[in-house]
Amino acid sequence: MRFLLKLCVLIIPCFFISYKLSAAEYKVAVRAHHGVEDSFKQWQPTINALEKQLSEHNFTLVPIVSLNAITQRFGQGEFDFVLTNPSSYVEIEHLYSVKALATLNNKRANTAQDRFGGVIFTHVNNTDILTIKDLKGKSLMAVSEPAFGGWRVAWLEMLKQGFDPYKDLKSLSFTKSGIQPDVVRAVRDRKVDVGVVRTDRLERMEEDGEIDMRFFRIINNKDVNDFPFFLSTELYPEWVFASSKSLPITVSQKVKKVLLELHPVTMAAKAGKYMGWVHPRDYNSVKELMKKLRVGPYAEK
Asked: Strand runs (DSSP E) across 109-219, as ranges?
């Protein structure tokens, strides 16, 4: 009996070590639109929630600033899951047949928002900039050309109003850092006349004490019922959590189930500043935008 007990003491730890070593490893790419460090703070608790509920698997978060890098590296088979903006998802879905698992349900003023858009804004002292047409001959900065809420939605809005930013601005620039707060700071410090960011970026920077909204003016401001953010464009479905087509469907469905069960009071939701996740929304409006702008997989050959 003593021999058997000693044998169990030796074997059981080895069993758990072996189990942990054999656990499936999955990498999750995330669009780090306000920096790698902040992305870890915002999204690591969500990854922790997946690991807690799916203890037979290991998940690693990989924040990536460049949208083009996400597409390229996903195509090289580096990632199993991706959390990214709508146009990035549409491009990866078109190229690599990823499957949407859930759409983000964002949080603002204790409301749930599964749609977002873009904000065009200027410094309040620029009294000659009141409308989109007033942007003629001005300088404008956005985060990057592939950015969705941070550029493409505003670009389409301008075109709809007869203004072509690539022809009618004095200068159009994009951040070197690839993060949206730098756009806001550039407008605040009067380095450029106008900026474009996604909805909720300005409010969150003010909430964190980084800016004072009294020094900014929203251009083409739209009032939409039940949408509490500043808005200059149409609304589109929020960010999407998607899986590679090579993953077993059982794994994808388990991940989806965990995401859909993350309620506002969980640590993941609090850190991520969201209310939870919902079943994937229809991203056809995003595809139509990309076709009109001729970008991504719909660019002219």
From this structure: 111-113, 115-116, 118-123, 139-142, 171-174, 194-198, 216-219
Per-residue pLDDT band for 24 (boundaries 50, 70, 90) equals confident
Helices marked H in 97-207: 153-160, 165-168, 181-188, 201-207
Q: Which two tokens stand for residue 58?
A: 């290991």
Residue 242 is part of which domain span?
21-113+238-298
How sure is the predictor about 117, in pLDDT bands with cuts at 50, 70 and 90?
Answer: very high
89/108 same-domain check: yes
Task: Return the CA Rg of the chain.
Answer: 22
Question: Residue 281 belongs to a domain with what CATH number?
Answer: 3.40.190.180
CB atoms within 10 A of CB 1: 5
Neighbours of 211 (CB within 10 A): 20
In a domain, 28, yes or no: yes
Residue 231 resides in a domain: no
Could you read off the pLDDT of 202-226 as tens digits, one per residue? Answer: 998 999 999 999 999 999 999 998 8
Q: What SS3 string covers 226-262?
A: CCCCCCCCCCEECCEEEECCCCCHHHHHHHHHHHHCC
User: Above 90 in pLDDT, residue 2?
Assistant: no
- The sheet carrying 194-198 orders its strands as 171-174, 139-142, 194-198, 118-123, 216-219
213 within some domain: yes
Residue 24: strand pairing partners: 57
Q: Which residues pair with 118 in a beta bridge?
A: 198
Confirm whether 226 is domain-assigned: no
Please report, for residues 39, 58, 103, 256, the alpha-carbon distance to residue 262 in angstroms, rounded to integers and kept in the order given: 18, 18, 12, 10
